[in-house]
Amino acid sequence: MFNITSLSTKLTDYFFALRDLWNVLKRKRSSKIGLSIVGFLSIIALFAPIIAPYDPNEQLLGKALLPPSLEHPMGTDHLGRDIFSRVVYGSRISLTVGLLVIFIGLLFGVPLGLIAGYYGGWKDNLIMRIVDILFALPDFLLALFVVSIIGRGLENAILAVGIFSIPIYARLVRGSVLYIRELEFIEGAKALGLNSFRIIFKHILPNVLPPIIVLSTLQIADAILVASALSFLGLGAQPPTPEWGAMVSTGRYYLRTAPWVSVFPGMAIFLAVIGLNLLGDGLREALDPRLRRLT
Amino acid sequence: MVLRYFIKRLLYFFPVILMVSFLVFIMIRLIPGDPARTIAGIMASEEDVERIRIQLGLKEPIHIQFIKWVSNILKGDLGISIRTNRPVTLEIFSRLPNTIELTIVGLFIAIIIGIPIGIFAAIKRGELSDTLLSIFALSGVSIPVFWMGLVLIYVFSLSLGILPVGERGGPLWTIEGLSHIILPSITIAAPSAGVFARITRSSMIEVLEQEYIRTAKAKGLKMNIIIFRHCIRNVLVQLITIIGMQFGYLLGGAIVTETVFAWPGIGRLLVDAIISRDYPLVQGIVLVYSILFISINLFIDLIYGIIDPRIRYE
Predict the structure, then answer these.
(1) Which end of chain A is more exposed for a tag (fewer CB within 10 A), N or C?
(2) Cα–Cα distance between A68 and A66 in angstroms, integer?
(3) What percent of chain B shows pLDDT beyond 70?
(4) Residues with pLDDT less than 50, chain A
(5) How far apart are CA A187 and CA B128, in angstroms?
(6) Is the CATH number 3.10.290.10 carried by domain B90-277?
(7) Using the beta-carbon criterion (under 8 Å), do A144 and B274 form an inter-chain contact?
(8) Contact B274 A277 (CB under 8 A)
(9) How far is A178 from A115, CA to CA, in rounded Å?
(10) What confidence tens digit (pLDDT) does each residue in B64-99 have?
(11) pTM summary value
């Protein structure tokens, strides 16, 4: 039933929760820096067509491998494309990759973790054994493995990295559910005769959200790193896509004469990942008071 | 008690290996379309495709194929590389030592850089040096390894000309060998050094707040003695598991690092095999990688069981 009063209370609740979070975040300089970097990159990604002076794939005749100048702040590559414009557009790709990867992880990992943690028994056993197998191998190897099966390409790279974020979410959520399940208010909800579905989604899920938010921030960072490494190896984004990892790879052949072709896209990856990691660390402290004293 | 724990861990080890080899086995059957055709390429003649089909044993029933695959592995036969026509085991084991060499040197560098940074940052907690070291550690975790490798090549090989660009220079005890491994091993070590520093720092801080440290302070022990005799030992025990895990990540990192530095290991071989669709070789390398990784974790678990008796009772 739609109810305007309960909706507005909810919105107010969210508003206060966000304000509290912001208050804790802004107390630490590193979280502020992280948030600024992530915000900055998001704005660049959002307004890429306005910010980029050239089309990312436009090949300027006779202007190959120009060093950085006022006209081309990051120089041009071997095909005479403006690297600054390509880096700007690349932010769209990398952020999308990160978001899609955690979307896959959330979509499958969270329900699996909720089921394993809440029901226990054979469901828990089955899910966690599969998770164990996936954890038994290094994630980069697994991602390569999947790409070798389904073929190269950016979409496939996203899928490969996404699949392996599922067990990470499942394990985290299960652990939190195991703890929350034993708390009194869940006992109360059960005593009231609420069905399991309602208990899981209305009472357990909101309490698992903080660690999920922290993990997601760090996972976006990780996804950007792994996906760009795949593209660097020629297994992810294919030319002429302005993907950062692929751009670093192109520059390899001109490293001696035109290092800027590789340097700037790599710097962009570094900046994005460090920003997300700073933000993730900050969120972890903000949302997990137990950790606050450790840092 | 130790024996029972060992047996339990070993019993867990074999099903995991079996599951992983099953995964690797079905891989080739999951390739969309006709795998033999995909491997041979669009231009291949029907005879070539048929030859590959027979070579891969794709014409037999699937359970027979799996049994054959497992028994061949046990005999040390991983099939024939499509590209070079040489046995996969030969291709892998001629290069595996190079990967292990790079990984171990990288792990060593990560440990001697990461752990002292973590300890020092924890002692100086909240001061400027702590902030700077923490940023340094976070940079290690956040840097794209392939890019860092290129930057190092640009600075130390192309600009300064003091270190070689890539490839292996020979045994480690020769100057040639040592100079070739410096850049790739630093590159591969960076993320792990960051992880070691971060984890050492937080577990140091945790240990420093323990009751027994307060007791040690109360009885007037010098801070240096407390740190070296009481804290670091406890932190190191916790770090053993992390070191084991990092060994696996370094093996993963070797794939990228070897490609950047043209290091003749199985990581670069894997990338080449994927690009040229040499599936028997891909299968073989993934299997060897996995067994290596799982064995290291088993080994770490066993060591941990000896050092920390509490683990055995879980």
Answers:
(1) N
(2) 7
(3) 97
(4) 1, 293-295
(5) 48
(6) no
(7) yes
(8) no
(9) 11
(10) 888 888 888 888 888 888 888 899 999 999 999 999
(11) 0.90
